[in-house]
TrEMBL record:
Native source species: Anncaliia algerae
Example of a GO cellular component annotation carried by this entry: large ribosomal subunit
Family annotation (SUPFAM superfamilies): Ribosomal protein L1
Name of the protein in question: 60S RIBOSOMAL PROTEIN L10A
Pfam families to which the protein is assigned, alphabetical: Ribosomal_L1 (PF00687)
């Protein structure tokens, strides 16, 4: 049995869609947890694959070598070479900060640390996804558009994108449901650790779900 009221969730989604004019607006779930000591408790880190894309335009860039560049070009996926970001001078650091700020995710190879530091992406909370050579890059790219990462950092407030207006109420509902049900499994005491859950769009005020 879900900890949230499904009827209220669906009616809240309908209310958001009714007052949001832009079809590309993202629907977001805001989560607040309780009962965690950030200095002592183990910090969770988990991913869930949603049934549907979480944004209309997921901005994902590939950073890699020549072989990965060819794969990215084949599928028309934005690409940046390792050589472009390698180095620690002022201009290179500005570039890496810009990449982290302007993208929702980065696909790269496991040897990325030879060329750039993960700290630039952690600060902007831009997740890294690792590509396994020999697998289909397009499939990896499409799965990222449906992947939500939950990582407890330095505060007890989290959020995740759960769809966009044009996706429609039923698919948004399915995404929210999948995200919330998975999130509970990461918590040390399950539902007891949830303080509140809100839903909102870019243009709307938050609606309390729990």
């Amino acid at each position: 049995m879900s900890f949230y009221n499904k009827e209220k969730l669906l009616s809240s989604i309908q209310a958001l869609l009714a007052e949001t004019e832009k079809k590309e607006d993202t629907i977001e779930i805001q989560l607040s947890i309780k009962g965690y000591d950030l200095k002592r408790d183990v910090r969770f880190d988990g991913n869930v694959l949603l049934p549907h894309p979480k944004r209309l335009k997921e901005k994902v860039v590939v950073i890699g070598d020549k072989a990965l560049e060819e794969e990215a070009a084949k599928h028309e996926i934005p690409f940046i070479s390792f050589e472009t970001v390698a180095g620690k001078n002022v201009e290179k650091n500005k570039l890496k900060k810009k990449i982290a700020k302007s993208n929702h995710g980065v696909i790269t190879l496991t040897n990325f640390n030879r060329f750039f530091e993960i700290s630039f992406f952690n600060r902007k909370r831009t997740p890294l996804y690792f590509y396994k050579p020999g697998t289909d890059l397009k499939t990896c790219y499409e799965e990222i558009s449906r992947t939500c990462k939950f990582k407890l950092r330095n505060n007890t407030v989290l959020s995740f994108a759960a769809g966009y207006v044009e996706l429609g109420e039923e698919k948004i509902f399915q995404n929210v449901q999948a995200g919330l049900d998975f999130f509970v499994t990461l918590l040390k005491k399950g539902v007891s650790n949830i303080a509140s859950v809100n839903i909102k769009s870019n243009q709307s005020k938050a609606i309390k779900l729990y």
